[in-house]
Amino acid sequence: MKLTKSLPVIKERNCSVSLVLDCRTQRKNATEFPLAMRFTIDRKFFYYVVESTYTEKQFSDICNATKSASENYREQRMWRETIVPKYKNLLAELNKGSLFTYEMVRVAVTTGNTSLQTKDDRSFMSIWEKIIHDLKTNDGGTQFTTGQNYECALKSFRKIMGYDAITGFNISVAEIQKWKDGMKHGVKGKDGKLIGVNDNAKVYQIII
Questions:
Q1: By Cβ atoms counted within 10 A, which residue in 46, 86, 94, 147 is the most buried?
Q2: What is the DSSP letter of 81?
Q3: What are the φ/ψ torsions at residue 18 (nearest 5 degrees)?
Q4: What is the pTM of this model?
Q5: Of 70, 106, 72, whose CA–CA distance to 91 is shortest?
């Protein structure tokens, strides 16, 4: 019999929330996993651990329990009455009248702060930095080396273009070409020395 993997509990605007087991672990032969809320916003999701541990079979049985006298049903009811309302109310109060962003919900859930408002302060550089951070930290750092490659390219970009050359998303084809040329041939710094040459072909291919 196929086990139930999630229990949908909240739908607030563009955010869906389910109770799941957070099975992301590097422990070998693990059989029990912590109960977590999985928040999904625009196809991106994150886990927030909320309760004790269960086996996958226990979790499935609790999710499918329908008899009010059973222990599994009482456990499911406890989840719905003591865990879910906190996050349901949090989402209801968050950014009223507008849709959520992934980062807004993540910060609100982890800090309990519902005063956050929509503010798109992203930029070409901030997104690049976020990609580096995510590659280095997501999934236990399995893409750490790729993150280092992106970081190396960012340092090269700043050496060639300068730290304040790009604001917001205002970057032209000519500026991209200048960086590409700088990666190949280098540019002269203030001291007259050649800087910016990046001999890492992998980085060049990834970013360009």
A1: 94
A2: I
A3: -130, 150
A4: 0.56
A5: 106
